[in-house]
Amino acid sequence: MKILAFDTSSASGSVALVDDxxxxxxxxxxxxxxxxxxxxPHIDGLLRGVNLGIRxxxxxxxxxxxxxxxxxxxxxxxxxxxxxxxxxxxxxxxxLDALAMNFPxxxxxxxxxxxxRRGELYAAIYEFDGGSPRAIMAQSALTPEGLSAAxxxxxIIKTPVIFAGSGLNAYADYIKTNVKNAVFAxxxxxxxxxxxxxxxxxxxxxxxxxxxxxxxxxxxx
Length: 221
Hints:
Layout (H helix, E strand, L loop, with lengths): L1 E6 L5 E7 L2 E8 L5 H15 L9 E5 L5 H18 L2 E5 L1 H6 L9 E8 L2 E10 L2 E11 L1 H10 L7 E4 L3 H11 L3 E3 L9 H13 L15
C-alpha cells in the first residue's frame, strides 16, 4: 500500500511516501513558507523523484491536530481533495502521536508538546510497547503549571521524562526549572515527520475495514 502523508500542523513541514511500512522518500523542514505555498509543489517533487504519480497512491494520510488551525485546515483540505478526486482513502493521525513516534524504543516516558498559544500547551505523555506509543496521559490543552502537576500525578516524577516538540521553544525554561529529571530531546527530533504519519495510518488501516473506491473518512478527516 503506497501512502502519501504530510504534516502542516506547525511552523515545520513534512511530506513522505511510505510503501506499507517502508519509507520510500521523505522531505522535512524545520521552517517552511506558508503551507498553502509549499505543500503541493513538494508533493509533486517528492513523487517525481521516485518516478511515481499521484494516481499511484493508495492512501492519503495527514496530521489532523492539535496544532495551528490554519495549517491543519490546509493539510486536511488537500488530503481530502486528493482522496475524493481519485477515489482513494484518507486517514487522519494525531500530531502528538506522530511526534512521539520519533522515539520508538525510548526507555523512559516521552512528553510531546506543541504551543497552543495564550499561555497553554498541547501535550500528551507516552510509553512504548514494542516500538509503538501508548498514551499514559491523553492529549490535553494545559498550562505549564497544569502539565507539571499532571506529570507529578502520574507518579513518574522520579523517572526521567523526555520532552520534545515546538512547545519547548516557549516553555523549555519553565520545564527545566519545575519538572525534575526533565530531558530535552535533540532539536531535530522536535519536528513531526510525515513518515511517522504514514506509518501510523498504515497501522490504522490494518485495524479498519474500508470500502473503496469511495474514500472512507477516518479519525476525523
